[in-house]
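I have been asked to look over a protein record a colleague put together. This is what I was given:
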Amino acid sequence: MQREAQTLLDDETLEHVGVLFEAVALYEEREKKYKGLWKEGGVADSLRHITSKSARVHAIGEGRTDLDDALDLINYTVFLIRNFRAGRLNTTQYQLIVATEDIKEGELVVFDFELGTVTPKREEEIL
């Protein structure tokens, strides 16, 4: 199989695919442990993880040698695409519906997407 791939792909592409296979191997290892947990958070959670992993990847330029975060970044980008295509936009959609049931008509509120909380807007915040 490797021999056939070499005849079909140039060296640069083969090296690129090799890195993608490393990301897939890491995904498989973690999928055994977490069993699809990435689906529950939807696109919003994928974006949060991409931001977090991206910040950690910046540390590679500062002497860090562990590349797992870079491989995770690849996988979370794939999760984002898969969640989006499956319509799993985020769990906060449900939280928003539940949290807004007690809001009075005309009341201004602040919804914290990170915490999934709704609080009335204070007078000094209203323009």
In short: The helical segments are 2-8, 11-34, 37-40, 42-58, 68-85, 92-99. The first strand starts at residue 109 and ends at 112. The chain has two domains: 2-88, 94-125. DSSP finds six helices and two strands in the chain.
